[in-house]
Design a protein that fits this description.
With 554 residues, this protein is mainly α. It is 70% helix and 1% strand.
């Protein structure tokens, strides 16, 4: 509203070069075009796709020949899933996103020759060049030229930077053409290029291997995914497993191209290119509406842009029969919690717990939510439910015991917490943060100091730049009477964590023990400026007033 008001008297707009261009008479009289342009641009920056598209398209209706406006209106229309994107794409022959939209329209319209020509013409600059061979291959496949399509991808699947991507799509093309042995050979190449295959690669490969008669291998691939209690493991368990094994994930070229868009988008998101990842997810949904992986990718980009309501709505589009329905529900619960809609989050998790009584993920997510809210007794109870659902804890279960240990310690149950931390280390002995939490608490209690020191020295070797671990090691040395060693560690900890009130407080205590009282009071005053918890602030005030007894006892 403010941007519109500021623009009410405007009569000009800048073209792509920044030169001021007079607007039409209607725009001069009302300021509507310039106001819509500003609001649309601001909304696009804020990732509010609906407002951006509404305003850019409104401005373009009055000023249809402004090239910059055409470009922005096109992008806004794509990002909001508007049909106007196709019409605008025809006006932007140099825009790679526009060419992808037109390519998608050719694919869905079965205009195979035109699609192949368009794929060939897409420039070889930027990330999208990665997809060019795959796009051409799917266009050839649509024309029935399966041998040519696979032949195009074969050399790229056997060597080259993107061999896993090209091998997977050669396998998918062969699978659609009902060539199970050829599909199997290429999917093995794809798996060989990925020592830890992603969820989606594992799902697609399992389906192909099952249709090639390699059912035990297919099941083993899904078992490896299910052997974690990460949210995505739900997509490898029943009933999702039956869908993955029995139904062909790719039905034709449009599905295959959508798969490629999501694969590239996911990789780009991992490199911080959220906007381009979101664009590719939108293009995938134009080709394949309600495509679960594209919905999750788009919701992730919305979450990164703090568009939490939009992300929740997007996740609601994942169908109950989709293998990704469980992960989508867990993410919805987490987002609802971030919006302080805890009742709704708890309802979703309760429904999942009732539907999947043997699985720990829903109650684990509830425990995480309650723990972050400081409801430690309830969090520990939720983790109790999760652990009760695990027949035999394995190495990857250590985070669950660590989380329950924190909840128990913060709720005053130290014996239970200590047992959980030790169990976590029994399952996975080299976890630096578990060692840090346990050893620091021992040091604070003045017990098991030798063992605590050994733990923290090992943790420090693993995480040499972690200021909290350096602080814990300094605190143990202080408790053991090694004042010079404690000073060295705590000064280093303050360098690594300069805004941490506890670390500065500890350094003050060690300075006091070393007779450096002015420096000690400086650190305590500094710690008070760092928003310490009320109890910690009271201790700092007391130390500033009266110092510490010698030796220190806490």
């Amino acid at each position: 509203m403010l941007l519109t008001a500021c623009a009410a008297g405007a009569s000009d707009v800048a073209d792509r070069s920044g030169r001021i261009v007079p607007m039409s008479g209607e725009a001069t009289a009302t300021g509507t075009v310039f106001g819509n342009f500003l609001v649309g641009r601001f909304a696009a920056d804020e990732q509010d796709t609906r407002v951006a598209a509404d305003n850019m398209l409104s401005a373009l209706r009055v000023e249809p020949n402004q090239l910059d406006l055409v470009q922005r209106a096109f992008l806004a229309a794509v990002m909001d899933g508007r049909p106007e994107a196709l019409r605008l794409a025809r006006r932007l022959p140099e825009n790679y996103a526009a060419q992808l939209v037109l390519f998608g329209a050719d694919i869905t319209g079965a205009r195979w020759e035109r699609a192949e020509t368009r794929a060939r013409s897409i420039g070889r600059q930027g990330p999208v060049q990665t997809l060019q061979p795959v796009m051409m291959a799917w266009a050839l496949s649509g024309r029935g030229q399966v041998d040519q399509a696979i032949g195009l991808l074969r050399p790229l699947a056997e060597q080259g930077r993107f061999r896993a991507l090209n091998a997977l799509h050669a396998a998918l093309i062969a699978d659609v053409a009902n060539r199970p042995r050829e599909a199997e050979r290429f999917v093995r190449l794809a798996l060989a290029g990925q020592p830890e295959p992603t969820l989606r690669l594992s799902q697609l490969a399992a389906g192909i291997l099952n249709r090639a008669g390699r059912t035990q291998e297919a099941v083993r691939l899904l078992d490896q995914l299910a052997e974690t209690h990460d949210e995505l493991a739900l997509a490898a368990l029943e009933p999702a497993r039956s869908v993955v094994l029995s139904q062909r994930a790719i039905q034709g070229p449009a599905d295959g191209v959508a798969e490629a868009y999501v694969a590239l988008g996911s990789a780009l998101r991992g490199q911080g290119l959220e906007e381009l990842a979101g664009l590719l997810a939108r293009l995938a949904l134009r080709l394949r509406p309600n495509f679960g992986p594209a919905i999750l990718l788009l919701a992730d980009t919305m979450t990164e842009g703090e568009q939490l309501e939009a992300a929740i709505a997007m996740l609601g589009n994942v169908r109950p029969d989709d293998p990704l329905y469980g992960p989508a529900q867990l993410r919805r619960a987490g987002l609802l919690d971030r919006l302080d809609r805890l009742t709704e989050a708890e309802r979703i998790l309760a429904e999942m717990t009732a539907a999947l009584p043997q699985l720990p993920q829903p109650t684990t997510r509830l425990g995480d939510i309650l723990r972050r809210r400081g409801r430690f007794v309830e969090a520990a109870a939720a983790y109790d439910s999760s652990i009760a659902r695990i027949e035999q804890p394995r190495e990857f279960d250590w985070p669950l015991f660590y989380a329950r240990g924190i909840a128990r310690e913060r709720s005053g149950n130290w014996p239970g917490a200590e047992a959980d931390f030790l169990r976590a280390l029994q399952l996975s002995p080299d976890q630096p943060y578990v060692m840090n939490y346990l050893a620091y608490t021992w040091a604070d209690q003045g017990v098991n100091l030798d063992r605590a020191r050994r733990m923290l020295e090992e943790a420090s070797q693993q995480r040499p730049q972690d200021g909290n671990i350096a602080d814990s090691l300094g605190w143990v040395l202080f408790r053991m009477g090694d004042i010079p060693g404690a000073i060295r560690q705590l000064e280093r900890a303050v360098e690594l964590e300069p805004r941490n009130s506890t670390v500065n407080d500890h350094l003050g205590d060690v300075y006091w023990a070393a007779g450096r009282q002015s420096e000690a009071r400086f650190q305590w005053r500094r710690a008070l400026t760092m928003d310490p918890e009320p109890a910690e602030a009271a201790r700092l005030q007391a130390k500033l007033a009266g110092g510490l007894p010698m030796p220190v006892s806490r």
